[in-house]
Amino acid sequence: MNATLLSQHDDDYVGLYTRSVGAGAEWWRVSLSERPFMYRIEHGHVDGSVDIDTVVDEENLAAKLQKWYREGYLTDAQREAEHADPRASADFVAELRRLRASEPARQLHGDTVKIGTVDVPRGPGGALVPALNDAYLFAERFDDIIEDIAENRRVMLIGHTGAGKTSLIEQIAARSQHGVLRSNMNGQTTIGDFVGFWTVKGGETVWVDGVLPTAMREGHWLIIDEIDFAEPAILAVLTAVLEPGGRLLLKEKGNDIVAPHPSFRLFATANAVGAMSQFRHLYQGANLMNEAFLDRWRVYLMDYLSAAEEAEVLMRTFGPRLTRPMADTLAAIAADCRAAFAREDLASAFSTRRLLDWTTLMLRTGDPERAAGPAIYAKVSPEDAALIRSIIHHYIALG
Ligand SMILES: Nc1ncnc2c1ncn2[C@@H]1O[C@H](COP(=O)(O)OP(=O)(O)O)[C@@H](O)[C@H]1O
Ligand SMILES: [Mg+2]
Prior knowledge:
Blueprint: E1 13-21, E2 24-32, E3 38-44, E4 50-57, H1 58-70, H2 76-84, H3 91-101, E5 112-115, E6 118-121, H4 143-150, E7 155-158, H5 165-176, E8 180-184, H6 191-195, E9 196-201, E10 204-209, H7 211-218, E11 221-225, H8 232-241, E12 248-250, E13 256-258, E14 265-270, H9 291-294, E15 298-301, H10 307-318, H11 324-342, H12 352-365, H13 368-375, H14 382-395
Parallel strand pairs: 7-14, 7-15, 8-11, 11-14
Antiparallel strand pairs: 1-2, 2-3, 3-4, 5-6, 9-10, 12-13
Helix pairs in contact: 10-11, 10-12, 11-14, 12-13
The site of magnesium ion has 4 residues, from helix 5.
């Protein structure tokens, strides 16, 4: 910038850059210095004080101008230009919120259970309802997922193993009294297990429903775990039932049509899909899911609980057998191990399940190091065990 070309004001400054602070403003003022090609800069605060008054050269000034812009300081002209930018409608969000407020709330039919801030229809109960975990922590960020379930959307949860994908669905089901069936795609699940098959019973040939038509007919929730390992035939069958109300055609059973029970819900979990694709090398054999398939789901990225949340879960789980500082220490160790995993210093993830089990065992043995053997060290490589041990020893002085 060549400030000498700017018209000089009566009050002798060539540029004023302000940013709002509450009702007032903070500013940087640039004026010409007595020395040629040098500029005087001052920094003023809301309370009228000036804490910087110095002289810089042109190059230095150019760098400052960029820094101020990044920090939100603008000239009056820039301020007007930002507001007038036709590409960024400042009204859009305000308008959206106004319209949303006048939208009718979701109609509630029958009995509901409040989970988080959402009313979830109550299910019929039964033997397939998962066991309630009283220590389970519903974070506010789960509300959108719970709302999707209430609205009968297909929900896919992606994230590292042990981040809490399966347990979130199970604990929502436990509270709303819905049965849950699970089908893991990273194993021996065949299309027959999934859809159904003919078999001979007592001399008669009978059809046995697979897990999908069973859940659809009886109104259970079906969790398809590790969907990124599913074989194409299973994905093809699934596509038909991804639309709400989507029916399943059982070709093998003479084109029998299965209509979904109103309580039926479909979930998927995956480790390396979409936003998690960067971790595909950690999940050997995971397939990329195509975007058209993903677009039929609401996909949520589940991160591990924060250290504060995890400490809270530890306190809820182990109650008076653990103090708050101890819970904080254990949660900090888990957080450090995950940071090492994210840096690829550790090859093994550190799940909440692992932390809870290690804690259970140290409460029994009174020895964190001994407890870490079967709960952690024996499950990972010697290199990983050594690094985890050093992280633990960083936080816990072992007697
Ligand atoms: N929000 C939470 N509150 C309490 N415990 C949790 C929570 N999230 C996860 N956990 C614990 O972590 C364990 C592992 O979670 P899980 O759902 O099996 O992970 P994923 O399916 O992502 O591999 C659960 O069994 C549960 O004990
Ligand atoms: Mg799981």
